[in-house]
Amino acid sequence: MGAPNDTTDHQQFQNSAIDPPPSMGLQMLIFLRRSLLVWAVGSAALSTTTGEAKCAFTAIFNFGDSNSDTGGFWAAFPSTPNPNGMTYFKRPAGRASDGRLVIDFLAQALGLPFLSPYLQSIGSDFKHGANFATLASTVQLPNTSLFVSGLSPFALPIQLNQMKEFKSRVLQLQPKDYLPSSDVFGSALYTFDIGQNDFTSNLGSIGIEGVKQYLPQVVSQIGDTIKEIYGLGGRTLLVFNLAPIGCYPSFLTQLPHSDSELDEHGCMTTYNNAVKDYNDLLKGMLRQTREALRDANIVYVDTHSVKLELFTRPKEHGLVYGTKACCGYGGGAYNFNPKVYCGNTKEIDGQTVTAMACADPHNYVSWDGVHTTEAANKLIASAVVGGSYFDPPFPLSQLCDLQPIGEK
Looking at 43, 66, 137, 149, which residue is catalytic? Predict the structure, then answer.
């Protein structure tokens, strides 16, 4: 498993993001529905009573992998293929999805524009933040080349250095049309959606027990990064946990498992339980960091529970397919073939085939077997903004006039 090794095919570097565990029953279903309803009613009321969005956060600085990359990887290694971006942007837009990501919807909810990738030199506007995420990024520095491992060279320590350079340049240049004011760093929201590739890139070669050996170092690196961001002025940080990888078509296709390891929804319990262990480590580290930095808001965001709910009960949330990819090749239960990724054409067994997109991505949780669709991302973002998945509780709706998301 892990990132592919085909050095001629940038698209295969998309084998990048995913996350694991628990099983949810009726109580979680009601909880998710309630949070979505509360958020929708609240945001609708705000939109009718306020003429202009007001928010305590004037910018977002994001650190992550393909789950939140808005174009950084493809700015560094241009080659974004169709049909990525087909739903919203109507063209490839640097995102590993058919449309918008959770970070896009979060920015919209706060009344901010989409984040420009830090690595994008043409057309970027950093007045309201910057996105340091790149597809295939890890928390720990990779010890091999991108073209060997498929992992991005822009790991979290590099993204942190880019953030430091960004602040230095802002202070040096002062506000410009494309740069924020120098006081932005204390009033910004810092988001982290990274760690998936550290977990998944070696699963196929060393297994769960091998991966578990270095996960404490991954969590520790995130904690150290949070402390450095605090030193740069950051006081509000949202840290997303990992998704249930045992439900993802790519891993269901590639990772070894027996039928007895599948739950009633078709997800691999062994791998999902391993992710739950990682998320517990992450949560514990954030608790300790919170105690050390008492004037900071360090919030654990349980997107894992939301994603697991969507994968296992898609029809309860207006979707149809949970563990089947929209864009892929092979059909069947998963519609995923690791030899040909979404948008690519390859020769397989003497036949030229193309991994094409379905006509109705709005019915799918999984876009390409590795990443989620815009429809799923909207539901995830709505649940997060609703506030029910913050630990400890965080009054986002009191700090910002939350705007409706997902509207054209």
Answer: 66
